[in-house]
Each structure stands twice: as C-alpha cells, then as structure tokens.
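Collaborator request, handled under Task 6.
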Amino acid sequence: VSTQSTGAEGRCKIKDESLGSFVGPGRSVVSLSVSPGAGHVTVGLSDRTEYRYSGELGCWMVIGHSHLDGTWAQDLPAPTPAATKLPSKRVYLNTVLQLEQRVRVAESAGEEGKTWVVSLVRYLALNKDETRLRELLQRLLASSSPRVHGSDRLELVGELLKVVGASCQRVYSEFKQQLEWAANRS
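Structure tokens returned to the collaborator:
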C-alpha cells in the first residue's frame, strides 16, 4: 500500500506496495489509516509498531514502536503528574536518535522535514533537554541557507520557539533575542 496525494481533491491514490517485510508469524496488521490531505498511509502492527508510507520520500518510516517513547507525536494539554514522568535514559536516547534520523532523511522533503524537526523540538522540550535544544536552534540560526525544511529559516525558528516556550523558558528567552537580532539584520 502506498499513496500519492492528488492535490485539490484531497484524495489519495493507492497503488501496490508490499507489507510483506513487516508482517509474519506473531506480527499482523491491526490498523490501517489513510490521511488524504497529507497523502500518507499509516499501518499499525500487533507488536505496537507503526509505519507510515511517505510518497514524498518513497519509503516506509517507523513512526512508533514499543521501545520508543510515543509522547513526541502528541500535542499534550497542560502537563499533569502522569504526563511529566520522564522516560528511561535508554528509551529517551532511542527516541531522540530516531527523530534526528527522520530530520536528516527528510531535509530536502519540505513539509515532511518541517514536521520531523517540530516533533524533535517538541520531544526535547517536553524532556527539558536544553543542551540539545540549544544546539539544534543554534544550527538553524547559523545556517547560511535562507530556507530550511521548506520554510523561511527565521520563520521556522520562530515556530519552534513557540513549541519551546512552554517547557524551557530560559532557552526560549535566549533564542527569542537572537531571532529578533537576526531578523533586524536581514
């Protein structure tokens, strides 16, 4: 199964794409969802692994697994004691590495890359990883390219700061000043 967005109609065109490498003994498809606007098909397997086929990238991507922390993909309401529990270090690092890999793979895929970088920033902010947040935001601000992940570089940093602001006020304040300075220089 795979999809291609057909544009204004908001429909997906399904064509042959094998799921054979994902299913087998003890592993079966338990859910299938189609997102016509985005042109994605998401498949959930019995071992709690989720795959999404991206027509832009032309491949299946693991978007969730039992060994990853799934909170990176959720827009959480105000933190509750249960929601603020941090994952184990191993799970946290696995999730960060997976998200960083998705960002690298999708760098030239426009909106796809932007989706993954926002997810990474959200996850880092939820886990209050100020060091990684600073490194990522600094890389984006220092980039010589005016467009990053299909967006204006400074606008993207501004959007990311909105995600950071609720959880990491210090990082937000630092980079808000740098963003204003960079915008005035442009």
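The cover message to the collaborator said: "Strands lie at 2-5, 12-15, 29-35, 40-45, 50-54, 59-64, 147-148, 151-152. The CA atoms of residues 84 and 172 lie 19 Å apart. Please let us know whether this matches your experimental observations."
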